[in-house]
Amino acid sequence: MENIALKASGITKYFYDPVKMQVLKDINMEVIKGEFVSIVGKSGCGKSTLLYILSTMDTDYEGTLTINGENTTGQSLNNLARIRNESIGFVFQFHYLLPDFSCLKNVMIPALRLGKLSPKEIEAAAYEKLKMFGVEDQALKKAGKLSGGQQQRVAIARALINNPAIIMGDEPTGNLDSKNTGIVFDLFMQLSKEYGQTLITVTHDEDFAKRSDRIIEMADGEIKRIAGNNGNKSQNNK
Amino acid sequence: MKISVNTEIALTYLSSRKKQTVVASMGVMFGISMFIFMQSLMKGTNDYFEKMSFTNTPHIRIFNENKVADNHMLRSFINDQSEKILTNPKQLAQSPGITNPYGIIDQIRRNPKIAAVTPQVTGNVIYTSGSVELPGNVAGVEIDEEDKMFDVQTNMISGNLHDLNRVHNSILIGKGIAEKLSLHTGDNLTVRAGNGNMLVMRVVGVFSTTVKQLDETKSYANISTVQSLAGKDRSYVTEIKVNLVNYNDAPAVARDLETITGYKSEDWVKANEQLKAAFKVRAIILNSVIGVILLVAGFGIYNILNMTIYEKIKEIAILKAQGFSGRAVTSIFLQQAIYIGLMGGIIGLIVGFSLTFMVSRIYIGAGTLKYLPMSFHPPHYIQALTFGIITTIAAGFFPARKASKVDPVTIIRG
Ligand SMILES: Nc1ncnc2c1ncn2[C@@H]1O[C@H](COP(=O)(O)OP(=O)(O)OP(=O)(O)O)[C@@H](O)[C@H]1O
Ligand SMILES: [Mg+2]
């Protein structure tokens, strides 16, 4: 199925410290290209843990993960780094920028790493992304000097810079006011509908979740319910 | 020129912690400049002492040495098939002279490695003036050749060395002899050889070397004068002195001369074994000091990079999350080490050179040593930079590898 962006089968994860504890229990899910999926659930139910596995950063799990038709389970760390650089944009729960670099550089770095465009072109693209989130006036400031919400928007801009096939966000709007949350949501929607980019976001914002294509509800490390909104593109995997 | 992201990040980290960067590169600078300074000083003084030793010893001396009796000699007396057993062999006195010295001299002059050859007759004598007697030795030389080889002229404190050729039965004496026998240029001196021959000689000059023991025993006379004092003919020569174009060839050339002439030929390295031993000891001391300095500089870099990594661990995790591979992270941190090393290294070269230059201008004025002998030897600078860079890379390697192993999830989860 070449229109599957991401497929997880039988993902199971344990933490051993301080006691053995199963955080994820046989998670099976598929996300179609261009789909905008929300993951919701109570705090501590394993949403972030799942997202780290889906992003290929965490390799310590059971089960298999396929991204854009490529099996990523068991691949070398260097290969996974390349896949992340090329096809995954990640917004962390606590927006992590590099404080010694300007906002502009922060956004540019993943693209410089990828090396597909010239530094000039990358700079222009980075400016454009900052503009979309209304932080272009902060471009040359050191990232460490921005407010929480500004930093989060720069972090989202950074996740988009390489036009990744999949964008993952761990509460990407957690620090934003309703106006900026609206901007981010509309942009995400546009990315998914117009550019066919796939979005997987963890959120506590019910409103945000309801407006996305599909809601995956987790509880105690399991998928409790999958609900399609507006009937569009909804899939059931159980 | 397009600089890579890794380089850009490495440079940003270096410039955002300027103080630590400067301190770390100062360590390298110190190590490298000390390396250069000490090496220059050591090579300079070694070269100086080597040259000094050539003011009274030739690069190679050819002479006749007493031999221990062996079967080979025995066979020349009883030449039959019998087995000969030699018990308790003794030293055999050889005639002290060299047979056919001028033939040998002509022969070895042809070797292009040889710059000068001169014969000498040495005789043990007793100098007598009034009732005072003083043992010593007189070197019968061709004074012009001798002067070319050993620059006798610079040692002259009174008189004229060329008078040796002009004045019959003349002699140049060391300063110590002159003092002990209270002699001056123009005075007469009685010289008695071991065979009882006596000669009254005219002092035409006094010389002073830096070696007191030489000044108290040595004198120069014309080779023919000493030959007749010894009661020998004109072909009597006790040693042949050879100087080479490059004195480092001496051991090899000496071996050749020994096989060609059949006489013992001793190179300056053998004659100055204690000098060479001193060089070795000094080299060991010096290399340990430099080793310690570079080690300390290395630890400085190691420490600073470790601290940086500890502080930047979250950022390393973010870089990895965005697709920087372990290799890219290693490169970022190793590059920081290399830039610290390069910066410290280049400044170290300049400082090392300046220090060497300044010290070479310090006036010493002891004996013939006017200024501290410092050598300006380009390989020292290349070596210093190489060692510096190797140290930095070695010091940066372990922190960089540690950084590359950071697990992004553990760090980002907090
Ligand atoms: N490194 C760890 N070692 C042990 N247990 C952990 C570790 N990280 C997370 N956990 C546990 O795993 C469970 C899932 O954590 P996770 O961070 O995935 O929750 P979450 O759903 O993202 O919560 P939130 O909405 O608060 O972000 C929690 O019970 C947490 O305590
Ligand atoms: Mg979470």
Distance, first to last CA of chain A: 18 Å
Shape of chain B: elongated
Outline type of chain A: globular
Q: What topology, given as strand order, has the largest sheet of chain B?
A: 4-5-10-7-9-8
Which structural class fits the helix and strand makeup of chain B?
A: alpha+beta
Helix content class of chain A: 25-40%
Low confidence ranges of chain A: 231-238
In whole angstroms, the N-to-C terminal distance of chain B is: 39 Å
Helical content class of chain B: 55-70%
The number of helical segments of chain B is 17
Going by CATH, what is the homologous superfamily of chain A?
P-loop containing nucleotide triphosphate hydrolases
**Oligomeric form of this entry?**
heterodimer
Rg on CA atoms of chain B, Å: 33 Å
Q: CATH topology of chain A, what is it called?
A: Rossmann fold
Ions and ligands? adenosine-5'-triphosphate, magnesium ion
Strand order of the largest sheet of chain A: 6-7-8-3-9-10
Number of strands of chain A: 10
What is the domain total for the residues of chain B?
Answer: 2
Would you write up a description of this structure?
The complex is a heterodimer of chains A (238) and B (414). Chain A has 238 residues and is α/β, with parallel strands linked by helices. Chain A has a single domain, classed as Rossmann fold, CATH 3.40.50. Chain A has helices spanning 47-54, 77-87, 103-114, 119-132, 148-160, 178-194, 206-211; strands at residues 4-15, 21-32, 36-41, 62-67, 70-71, 88-91, 166-170, 198-202, 214-219, 222-228. In chain A, α6 links the parallel β7 and β8 (198-202). The longest helix of chain A has 17 residues, at 178-194. Chain A is globular. The relative contact order of chain A is 0.19. Chain B folds into two domains: 5-53 and 275-413, no CATH class; 60-76 and 91-267, no CATH class. Chain B has a six-stranded mixed barrel with strand order 4-5-10-7-9-8. Chain B has a two-stranded antiparallel ribbon with strand order 2-3. A two-stranded antiparallel sheet of chain B has the order 13-14. In chain B, a hairpin with a 2-residue loop joins β13 (363-366) and β14 (369-371). Chain B is elongated, with a radius of gyration of 33 Å. Classes of the chains: A alpha/beta (238), B alpha+beta (414). Chains A and B meet through α2 and α3 of A and α1, α14, α15 and α17 of B. Adenosine-5'-triphosphate binds at residues 15, 17, 23, 41, 43-49, 93 of chain A. Residues 15, 17, 23, 41, 43-49, 93 of chain A line the site of adenosine-5'-triphosphate.
